Every structure is written in structure tokens, then in C-alpha cells.
Amino acid sequence: MTSTLTPTLGGAKHAEAQLYVTATHKVRSSSGKPPFAWVPYGAQHAWQAGSRKTLCGEWTSGWTVFWDRPFSAAPHEACPACVEASLPEASRRRLDPALRRTA
């Protein structure tokens, strides 16, 4: 089981605001030189240190946290619900008609 303790790099305030990649599966990278690093396999979810759930609401018990990978919407493996949840509220309002205010 991979630890989900907050790393000491960068201080506690930096770690609180940072979103990291977490995934249910991991594999060894086949690129570069050995030793090959572990990389996420499958959907890449957004996770904030100290939380028990991803931004999309999935429980993370037993999941691997990739401390060296900040969450990004760019990879096609990024969970669409986590991408949406990571957007600022104003952006989510523009995307979801149910959240728009009508005049």
C-alpha cells in the first residue's frame, strides 16, 4: 500500500493547495533508463493531500498517489469529472447550464 502522507517538500500550505494524480493502478514506465519509475495506469484522478476522496468523489483507499505528478487536465487519461471539479467556480457555471443564473 502506498503512503498518502503529505510530503514535507514545499511546506504545508503549498501541499494543501496542490492537486496530485492518484490512480487505482500503476505500471513501470518503459521509457528512459532503469530504474523505471511507477506511472499511473488508467484514469488519472485529482486528489488533494489529506482528503479520502478524489475531486470526483471516488474513495482513494488503496490507491497510489503520484507525488511527483501534479494533476493536469491535459492528459487524455485525466478523469473528466475531476477536470471539471478542478475548475474555478465561475468556469463551472459557464459550462453547466443548471448553475447559470437567469436574469
Short description:
With 103 residues, the chain is an alpha+beta fold. It has one domain. 20% of the residues lie in helices and 23% in strands.
What is the global morphology?
elongated
| Euclidean distance between termini CA atoms | 51 Å
Largest sheet: 3 strands, antiparallel
Low-pLDDT stretches are: 8-16
Strand order across the biggest sheet?
4-1-5
Strand content: 15-25%
Care to describe what's here?
By secondary structure, this protein is of the alpha+beta class. It has one domain. It has helices spanning 11-17, 80-86, 89-95, and strands spanning 19-23, 25-28, 38-41, 45-48, 64-70. A three-stranded antiparallel beta sheet has the order 4-1-5. Mean pLDDT is 83; it is low at 8-16.
Task: Tag the structure with descriptive keywords.
103 residues; alpha+beta; two-stranded antiparallel sheet; elongated
Task: Give the SSE map.
Layout: H1 11-17, E1 19-23, E2 25-28, E3 38-41, E4 45-48, E5 64-70, H2 80-86, H3 89-95
Antiparallel strand pairs: 1-4, 1-5, 2-3
